[in-house]
Amino acid sequence: MRVAVTHVIRFIEETAAILQDQRHYLTELDAAIGDADHGANLDRGFSAVLARLPGVAEMDIGSILKTVGATLVSTVGGASGSLYGTAFLRAGSVTADRFELSPEDLVAALESALEGIQARGKAQLGEKTMIDAIAPGIDALKQALAAGDDLVVALRKGVAASGEGTQATASMIATKGRASYLGERSLGHQDPGAASAFLMAQALLKVIESSE
Ligand code: ADP
Ligand code: MG
Predict the structure, then answer these.
(1) 190 in ligand 1 pocket by Cβ < 6 Å?
(2) How far is the CA of 129 from the centre of ligand 1 (A)?
């Protein structure tokens, strides 16, 4: 199957809904190792994104994703605003002028998003950040597609790997971002940004599953 503009719009709507629904959970995770604002940050950002969606719904996928990125950068105060903002801006760059994406195009957009997060935040795998949910998810998605799975099946595997990556952050010591101030005391707690990235992956899967 191919990913169309309508899927992208519904992915953004689902993401906004799931982040709003789970904002207290995300904030609780951030209360343990950060400053208790991750849920509120993302809810504020994606509410602003929702308000701007009607103005871009007829545009190409790249323009839509760039609008999401620019809105997150300008409305989310925390580190996650510039990181997720950069991710959507980068994904928007590689999908400029496109009204449809193949599974491989989707992988390329996700990889660009991850590169943007790494360029901006300088974190590597294992530092207890959103990268620990995103990178394994993309790897599993790519492997599944290469093995011949269709997009829905491949995305299910990607989301499962992203969930495992999120859980694994509990046994990591934070060395980037606010949680790094805690050092070893960050052990035993899941990273809020990994958890929010996992929620976004679930939103994407839900949209692709429901359009089969
Ligand atoms: P802040 O830390 O400024 O309060 P948020 O609470 O919204 O911002 O977001 C915190 C999340 O941002 C962390 O859980 C982590 O996943 C992510 N994060 C922080 N710094 C980095 C970084 N350098 N690279 C990747 N992700 C990071
Ligand atoms: Mg915070």
Answers:
(1) no
(2) 7
Two structure tokens written together for 85: 């903002």
**Number of neighbours of residue 90 by Cβ within 10 angstroms:** 24
Query: Where along the chain do its domains lie?
Result: 3-210
Per-residue pLDDT of the chain in tens (212 residues, 90 and over written 9): 899 999 999 999 999 999 999 999 999 999 999 999 999 999 999 999 999 999 998 999 999 999 999 999 999 988 999 999 999 999 999 999 999 999 999 999 999 999 999 999 999 999 999 999 999 999 999 999 999 999 999 999 999 999 999 999 999 989 999 998 888 888 999 999 999 999 999 999 999 999 87
pTM over 0.85: yes
Look at phi and psi of residue 97 and say left if phi exceeds 0, alpha if psi is from -120 to 50, else beta: left
The verdict on domain 3-210 having CATH code 1.25.40.340 is: yes
